[in-house]
Design goal:
It is built from 21 helices and 30 strands. The protein is an alpha/beta fold. It has a seven-stranded parallel beta sheet with strand order 11-12-10-13-14-9-15, sandwiched between helices. A six-stranded parallel beta sheet has the order 16-26-25-17-24-23, with helices on both faces. Helix 16 links the parallel strand 23 and strand 24. Helix 18 runs antiparallel to helix 19 and helix 20 packs across helix 21. The longest helix has 18 residues. The protein is globular. Bound molecules: adenosine-5'-diphosphate and zinc ion. Adenosine-5'-diphosphate (ADP) binds next to helix 9.
C-alpha cells in the first residue's frame, strides 16, 4: 500500500503580485508576479515590450486589476542590501506627485546609471585605514631629510589614515605602504565612516560663532536656516563648524552646491578639513561607475559626507543629520528638462523628513527664501563682515553711458581705470553679462541679422572658429561671405562677446597679459587648475569672462572689476531677470578685494537710477530684496503666488497652442475649473523656438498650493486623453518654473 506524497494542484501555487516602477513615460506602475513576496525597494529585472529592463518593487501583495494569465514573472531579483529604503521611496513618491511626473521615470532619474541597468551590483566595501603596527612603532623612522617619507611615517604613527589622506602627504604613499607592510611595520583595518575630523581650521569670528551656535542648538530637529552672508564673510567656515558636530554624532551630511562651484579648490578645502571623514562626491561629471559606487557608499552609510550638485539630493542617506545648500539662489538647482525638480525645495522636504536642520546659504538669497525668512518660516542668520579682517567691501561706481561715446563697448572712464590699474600693478577683471547679449553678425547695409533657423535665438559669432553658433540647439554655420538679403559683403560684428573684448583690450594695453575664461576654454577641471596656477604665479593682468567668473572663486590679487554691458537683462521679459542680474553683479563685485587690496567695481549702464544699480551701489541686498518683493506682490508673482507652467511643443506655434486651448475648453465645458486658480495664456515661450519646435505655454497660478495641484491633476488627465488626437504635439508640466 502506498501514498501519493506529492499532490500537485493549481491551488498550491500562490503567486504574489507586485507593483513595479519602470522607466516608462506613463503615469502608472506595472504588475509582475513572483513566488515570494519581495521587499519594497528591491531592484528586479523584468520583461517589458520584449526587452529585459530594470525595475524597482514599489508594492507587494497587490490585487491585480488585469487578467492574471497575462501577468509575467519577475526574471531576476537583485540584492542591493535594501538601499532603496522606505524614506527614499517616500521622497520619490512625493517628487513624482509634486512635479506631476511619472513615478517610474522619477525613480529611474534618481538612480545612478549602474542601478538603472538590469544587472547585479557589487556592493562597495569599507575603505581601508593604515597605521603603524607595534613592530613599526618600535622601528626607527625614516631620516628627516626624506621629509615626505618622514611626514608619512609620522602620520601613520598617530592615528589610522586612509590612502587618500596619505597621498596628500606623499604622492607615492601607496608604494611606501606596500614596502612597509612587507616589513610588518603597518597594520590595516576597515575604516569606520565617522572618525574624528582633523585640524586645519580657522577660529570663528563672533558673527560666525553666533550663527554656528544657533544652528547647533537645533540638531536633530527640523529647522531651516537662511544664512545670509556677504561674499567672503566665511559662510563655508560656518557650514564646516556645524558639519563637524553632526559628523561627530555619527550622522551623515549632505552638502549641495551649484555645478560651477564644485571646484577642485573647494574639494581640496573639504578634504583638508575633513580628511578623516569618508566622502562621496556626486555630480554629473563624475564617471558613471564611480558615481554608482559613491551612491552606494552613501546609501550603505559608508560615506558620512556627500558633496554634490542638484542630483545628489536623491542620494539615500540612512543617517542624515544635516543638509547644506550653498549658493541657494543659484538657478542650477532647478533641473530644466525631464523631471523638472528644484533641489533646494526637495532638500527642505528631506530635512523635514529626517528631522534635521538645513542651512541655505547665500550672499544674495532667492526672493523665495528671503520671503520665507521674513515670514519667520526660516530662521535668518546674518554675516555682515568679511572674514579676513583687512578685507573690505569694494567701492561701486556707476558710469552713465547715455552721454558718453563708446569705443567698442568701452567708455573713456572705464578705459582709464583699466590703464591706471595696470600701471599700478593691479589685477583687473572685465565681466560680460552674456544673457541676452552676445556678439552677433549683422549686415551694415541692410541691417540683416542672423537668427538660428531652428530656434528663435540669435546666432552667436565665434570669430576664431569663423562660425555662427546657436547657443540653444548648437546649430553651427560657417560665417557667410555675403549678406543673404542684399548681397553686401561687409558684414560686421555687434555686441561684445568675450573675444572682441579681448581684442579691444589688447589694443588698449598691448603689454598686459590677458586671460579669457569662458565655457569654451574651461570645460575641464584641469583648465581651472591651470587658470589658478597662472593667477597665483602673477601671470595674469586682466581676466575676461562671463558668468563662469562670477561664482565662488577666490582670486586674491584682483582689485578692479569692470562690467561693460549690464543692461541687457533689464530689457528681458522674464520677471526674474532683475533678481538674477543683481545676484550676479553682487557676486562679481564680491570677487574683488577679498584679501588686503581695496577693490573697485565700475559698471557701465544707461539706467543708473534703476533700483538694481542703486542697491548694488550700497551693496544692500535687503534694500533690493524688499523693493523687488513689493513689485512681485503688486504683480501677483511668486513668491506671492504659486505658479505652474503647462507647455506644449509642435512643428508650429498654432498646433502647440491648439492642444492647450482644446484642454482648456474641455475643462470649461465640464466645469472643472475653480476660481482659486488663474489661467494665463496660451503664449509662446520667451525662447519660442527650440531645436526645430515651436513652444507654447499656459500658466496656472494660485494663492493656494493645494488648489493649484488639483487643477494640475485635472489638466494632466485631459492632456493624456486629448493627446491621442494630436500625437505630434508633446506636453509637459513645470511646477515652480524658472524658465519663462
Ligand atoms: P564665503 O563662502 O562667505 O564667501 P569663505 O568661507 O569662502 O566665504 O571665506 C572667505 C575667506 O575668508 C576664505 O579665504 C576663508 O579661508 C577666510 N576665513 C573664513 N573664516 C575665517 C576666520 N574666522 N578667520 C580667518 N579667515 C577666515
Ligand atoms: Zn538653434
Amino acid at each position: 500500500m502506498g501514498y501519493n506524497l506529492c499532490i500537485y494542484s493549481d491551488e498550491t501555487i500562490v503567486l504574489i503580485y507586485h507593483h513595479i516602477a519602470l522607466n516608462v513615460p506613463l503615469y502608472t506602475l506595472f504588475t509582475y508576479a513572483h513566488p515570494k513576496a519581495l521587499a519594497e525597494g528591491t531592484r528586479v529585472a523584468i520583461r517589458f515590450r520584449g526587452k529585459r529592463v530594470c525595475g524597482v518593487v514599489w508594492q507587494s501583495h497587490i490585487q491585480p486589476d488585469i487578467d492574471v494569465a497575462k501577468i509575467q514573472p519577475i526574471e531576476t531579483v537583485f540584492d542591493d542590501g535594501g538601499i532603496l529604503s522606505a524614506s527614499w521611496r517616500q521622497l520619490l513618491t512625493f517628487t513624482a506627485h509634486y512635479y506631476h511626473y511619472p513615478l517610474g521615470q522619477a525613480v529611474m532619474a534618481a538612480l545612478p546609471r549602474g542601478l538603472r541597468e538590469a544587472k547585479a551590483m557589487t556592493l562597495p566595501s569599507l575603505p581601508l585605514a593604515y597605521q603603524l603596527s607595534a613592530q613599526g612603532q618600535a622601528h626607527e623612522p625614516p631620516a628627516t631629510r626624506f621629509y615626505k617619507q618622514r611626514a608619512l611615517w609620522d602620520r601613520l604613527s598617530q592615528t589610522a589614515a586612509t590612502l587618500d589622506e596619505l597621498r596628500i602627504l606623499h604622492p607615492q604613499a601607496r608604494q611606501y605602504l606596500q614596502k612597509w607592510q612587507q616589513q610588518g611595520w603597518i597594520s590595516q583595518h576597515t575604516l569606520e565612516p565617522h572618525a574624528a575630523p582633523t585640524l586645519a581650521r580657522h577660529s570663528l569670528n563672533p558673527e560666525q560663532q553666533l550663527a554656528s551656535n544657533c544652528i547647533q542648538q537645533h540638531l536633530n530637529q527640523f529647522t531651516p536656516f537662511l544664512l545670509h552672508g556677504i561674499t567672503g564673510s566665511g559662510k563655508t567656515e560656518v557650514y564646516f563648524d556645524v558639519m563637524e558636530k553632526v559628523l561627530q554624532q555619527g550622522q551623515q551630511v549632505l552638502f549641495l552646491l551649484p555645478e560651477i562651484n564644485l571646484t577642485p579648490q573647494l574639494l581640496q578645502r573639504v578634504q583638508q578639513r575633513f580628511a578623516h571623514t569618508t566622502t562621496a562626491v556626486l555630480h554629473s561629471q563624475t564617471a558613471a561607475g564611480e558615481r554608482t559606487q559613491n551612491y552606494l557608499r552613501a546609501a550603505l552609510n559608508q560615506a558620512a559626507l556627500v558633496i554634490g550638485t542638484r542630483l545628489a539630493v536623491f542620494t539615500p542617506l540612512p543617517r542624515l543629520g544635516l543638509i547644506v545648500v550653498d549658493e541657494e539662489h543659484d538657478p542650477s538647482f532647478k533641473q530644466d528638462s525631464e523631471l523638472r525638480y528644484q533641489a533646494r525645495d526637495l532638500a527642505i522636504w528631506r530635512a523635514r523628513q529626517a528631522q534635521c536642520p538645513i542651512i541655505l546659504g547665500s550672499a544674495t538669497p532667492s526672493l523665495e527664501s528671503w520671503h520665507k525668512a521674513q515670514q519667520q518660516q526660516y530662521q535668518l542668520l546674518t554675516l555682515q563682515q568679511r572674514a579676513h579682517t583687512r578685507a573690505r567691501l569694494p567701492d561701486i561706481h556707476l558710469v552713465d553711458t547715455r552721454r558718453l561715446p563708446l569705443d567698442n563697448g568701452f567708455s573713456e572712464p572705464i578705459k582709464q581705470q583699466l590703464q591706471a590699474n595696470f600701471a599700478a600693478g593691479g589685477m583687473s577683471m572685465v565681466y560680460l553679462n552674456r544673457r541676452g547679449f552676445a556678439p552677433a553678425l549683422f549686415c551694415s547695409a541692410c541691417g540683416h541679422t542672423f537668427g538660428c533657423p531652428h530656434c528663435s535665438a540669435k546666432m552667436v559669432l565665434h570669430q576664431r572658429a569663423a562660425q555662427l553658433r546657436c547657443h540653444h540647439c548648437d546649430y553651427r554655420l560657417a560665417v557667410p561671405a555675403a549678406c543673404p538679403e542684399c548681397g553686401n559683403q561687409d558684414l560686421s560684428a555687434v555686441g561684445h562677446g568675450t573675444q572682441r573684448v579681448e581684442e579691444t583690450l589688447h589694443q588698449l594695453l598691448p603689454q598686459a597679459r590677458i586671460l579669457r575664461v569662458d565655457r569654451d576654454s574651461t570645460s575641464h577641471k584641469q583648465d581651472w587648475i591651470q587658470i589658478y596656477q597662472q593667477i597665483e604665479a602673477q601671470q595674469v593682468d586682466i581676466l575676461v569672462g562671463t558668468q563662469m567668473l562670477a561664482k565662488g572663486h577666490d582670486f586674491g590679487r584682483l582689485n578692479l572689476v569692470v562690467v561693460v554691458n549690464a543692461d541687457g537683462s533689464l530689457y528681458s521679459a522674464d520677471f526674474r531677470a532683475p533678481e538674477r542680474l543683481f545676484a550676479e553683479l553682487m557676486q562679481v563685485a564680491g570677487r574683488c578685494g577679498r584679501a588686503e587690496h581695496q577693490g573697485h567695481v565700475w559698471v557701465q549702464t544707461m539706467q543708473p537710477e534703476n533700483p538694481v544699480f542703486q542697491a548694488l551701489k550700497t551693496q544692500h541686498y535687503a534694500d533690493f530684496a524688499n523693493h523687488e518683493l513689493q513689485q512681485r506682490q503688486l504683480m501677483h508673482m511668486p513668491p506671492f503666488q504659486h505658479m505652474a507652467a503647462i507647455r506644449a511643443d509642435a512643428r508650429t506655434m498654432a498646433q502647440a497652442q491648439q492642444l492647450l486651448r482644446a484642454v482648456q475648453q474641455q475643462i470649461d465645458e465640464h466645469q472643472q475649473h475653480t476660481d482659486q486658480v488663474s489661467i494665463f495664456g496660451p503664449v509662446p515661450m520667451l525662447m519660442a523656438r527650440l531645436a526645430g519646435h515651436e513652444r507654447a505655454q499656459i500658466f496656472l497660478e494660485s494663492h493656494d498650493r493645494r488648489a493649484l495641484h488639483q487643477a494640475l491633476s485635472v489638466w494632466q488627465s485631459w492632456l493624456i486623453y486629448m493627446q491621442n488626437d494630436q500625437p505630434h504635439t508633446r506636453w509637459l508640466i513645470d511646477v515652480d518654473p524658472l524658465e519663462m
